[in-house]
Design a protein that fits this description.
Blueprint (H helix, E strand, L loop, with lengths): L10 H8 L3 H9 L18 H15 L4 H12 L4 H35 L9 H7 L2
């Protein structure tokens, strides 16, 4: 989607341009991921292209599974000085977490498939799956 050529955005336009919900923008402002925008004389918030760029960064980071705290750390680096090696280290650490989660999900899948295979089905209240879930 092309970024609007306007120099200022309302929160609604910012939400539309970034693909982020209005309430999410409010939340990001509340927790400090998004800086407070300047206001017009009538009190309306005026978001800049830099706000849009930052919000897209946050959205993409969240889509990749980074927590809000991790995103805050990345933004601190972006706002200050950082080395590409530092960002790479963070990304690789995140990859390791994802690999662990995938391994855990594969174990869960296998356990559920095993239970389902042992279940004969039917319309009786006896169920191997329920019995297994009730075990100590």
């Amino acid at each position: 989607m092309a970024v609007s050529q306007k120099r200022e955005f309302t929160r609604g336009t910012l939400a539309k341009e970034s693909g982020v919900n209005l309430e999410t923008i409010r939340f990001y402002e509340k927790i400090g991921l998004m800086p407070d925008p300047p206001r017009t004389a009538s009190g309306y918030r005026c978001y800049s292209p830099d706000h849009l760029k930052r919000l897209k960064f946050i959205r993409r980071s969240r889509e990749l599974g980074f927590t809000n705290q991790e995103v805050a750390g990345l933004l601190e680096m972006v706002d200050g000085t950082y080395a590409c090696d530092d960002v790479k280290d963070i990304a690789l650490a995140h990859v390791a977490l994802i690999k662990n989660k995938v391994a855990d999900l594969v174990k869960l899948q296998s356990a559920l498939e095993t239970m389902a295979a042992e279940c004969s089905g039917g319309d009786t209240p006896d169920c191997v799956i329920v019995d297994r879930l009730l075990e100590d």
